[in-house]
Write a structure and sequence with these properties.
The chain is an all-alpha fold. The chain contains 13 helices and two strands. It has one domain: Serine Threonine Protein Phosphatase 5, Tetratricopeptide repeat, CATH 1.25.40. Strands 1-2 form a two-stranded antiparallel sheet.
């Protein structure tokens, strides 16, 4: 039986398997219009402050107690921390997942965020850093925190799914999209669901799209 593809308005359209293959082999659109690009993390932008803070944290953090450096750096309001600066700093720490996680926790206690929470980009950057290091349990705990703070979004799950697929854990990637509704309050729409297909195709797993996804539907 041909697989089904979410259509506009929440309906489900039948899509032949040959069409699935064509989606993966057709000429790719420009990067700015590809499904995965729409839900991508923000780029690293020029920020001397973020560069310097990242250098200090990476140079002086304790690998056995990674929370110490961010707490010491941010305590007492010595650093004027904006949402944009926090995001750029976390993007620079994506190779130091434990330090990035500790920085996010410290930022949530910082005077700059007394009446608000860190921006959604900050949570997504930490989810990406943790999943990049295959610390998926810790990444899911950040997803839970993001949901509690109203910061979880479809991009959060696109980021998580991309890292699952990169690690060869395609079943978990599909399940992550299935679980999105519990954290975001709605199911993935057709455009967001297309990011899953796009990423599976890029990592040469197109068959998983209809073997895994549509086994759940039926």
């Amino acid at each position: 039986m041909p697989p089904l593809l979410p259509a506009a308005g929440g309906s489900v359209a039948r899509l032949p398997c040959a069409s699935i293959r064509l989606l993966c082999t057709a000429m790719a659109p420009p990067e700015t219009t590809s499904p995965s690009h729409v839900l991508a993390l923000p780029p690293i932008a020029r920020s001397p402050d973020a560069d310097e803070l990242a250098r200090v944290l990476l140079a002086h953090h304790n690998p056995f107690h990674p929370a110490e450096s961010p707490l010491q750096l941010l305590s007492g309001g010595g650093v004027s921390l904006t949402g944009g600066l926090l995001v750029q700093l976390l993007l620079r720490l994506r190779g130091a997942s434990k330090l990035a996680l500790s920085l996010l926790h410290a930022a949530r206690l910082h005077p700059s965020f007394v009446n608000t929470r860190p921006p959604p980009d900050a949570y997504d950057a930490v989810v990406d850093a943790l999943a990049r290091a295959r610390q998926f349990d810790a990444a899911w705990r950040v997803v839970v925190d993001a949901s509690a703070d109203g910061a979880a979004s479809p991009r959060t799950f696109a980021v998580l799914a991309r890292r699952y697929i990169a690690a060869g854990m395609t079943r978990q990637a599909v399940r992550a999209f299935d679980d999105m509704e519990a954290f975001v309050g709605r199911e993935a729409n057709s455009a967001e669901f297309a990011t899953l297909l796009d990423t599976l195709c890029k990592y040469k797993y197109p068959k998983v799209f209809y073997l895994e996804t549509y086994s759940c539907i039926w």
